[in-house]
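Quick one, tokens below:
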């Protein structure tokens, strides 16, 4: 069962992430993030989205650190803990690659828009995917038996 959960975590880094709800509530979509920041001027929208990216990166780092701490307390044989850590590292790397490619695609959907509008699409995408990944990581280890 644990191997299946870890496989799901690893594979999900390479697949589009459907609405994965965080334990703290639903993750806002890219569109919703752009709408939340839409009350500002063009420069203000970009600054708002950049702040959302910063916050999402912090949440993702915290989730990654929490998973690492949880794995060190996992009540499982050492070899399985080591395997899980190695797969987590690979999954994190795969997610970063996926996020970069997906957000490049998302920003390309801006078509002939000026650079600032395209960058806003990219920032909203990064924030959404970081938040989804953080929720996914929190959920992955939420029910592990600890020592």
């Amino acid at each position: 069962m644990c191997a299946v959960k870890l496989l799901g975590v690893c594979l999900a880094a390479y697949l589009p992430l459907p609405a994965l709800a965080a334990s703290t509530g639903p993750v806002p979509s890219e569109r919703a993030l752009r709408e939340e920041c839409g009350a500002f001027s063009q420069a203000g929208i970009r600054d708002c989205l950049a702040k959302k990216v910063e916050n999402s990166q912090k949440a993702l780092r915290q989730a990654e650190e929490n998973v690492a701490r949880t794995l060190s307390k996992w009540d499982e044989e050492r070899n399985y803990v080591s395997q899980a850590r190695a797969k987590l590292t690979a999954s994190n790397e795969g997610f970063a690659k996926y996020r970069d490619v997906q957000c490049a695609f998302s920003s390309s959907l801006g078509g002939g828009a000026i650079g600032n509008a395209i960058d806003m699409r990219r920032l909203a995408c990064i924030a959404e995917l970081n938040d989804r990944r953080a929720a996914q990581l929190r959920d992955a280890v939420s029910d592990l038996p600890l020592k």
